Q: What sequence folds into this?
């Protein structure tokens, strides 16, 4: 059975992830990966207490991109065309994450220095 463009858009709107919902559940419960279909990663996130805080900082910078990627993948699975993806604001991201990795590395070094100073006494 084939669906019309409007039906596909209705299916997409019913199943897409709303960023506000994910952000609220992440801030209050630490839940983000589970809603995006990555239960194993969510369990690991909880077991490591958000990667001892470093992973949580990483998520703060990358969560919007992950939500956009999830919604883009859903739209493609439903068979939406490129013009529909553009209309929905789901164009492929081309920016580099190198800047965020450098920030995280610096934060990691700062945390290691703080731990070393705290336990040195």
A:
């Amino acid at each position: 059975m084939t669906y019309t463009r409007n039906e596909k858009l209705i299916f997409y709107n019913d199943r897409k992830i709303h960023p506000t919902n994910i952000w609220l559940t992440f801030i209050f419960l630490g839940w983000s990966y589970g809603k995006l279909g990555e239960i194993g990663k969510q369990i690991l996130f909880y077991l490591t207490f958000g990667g001892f805080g470093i992973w949580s900082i990483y998520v703060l910078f990358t969560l919007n991109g992950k939500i956009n990627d999830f919604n883009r993948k859903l739209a493609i699975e439903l068979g939406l065309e490129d013009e529909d993806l553009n209309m929905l604001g789901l164009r492929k991201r081309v920016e580099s994450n190198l800047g965020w990795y450098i920030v995280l590395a610096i934060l990691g070094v700062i945390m290691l220095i703080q731990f070393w100073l705290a336990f040195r006494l």
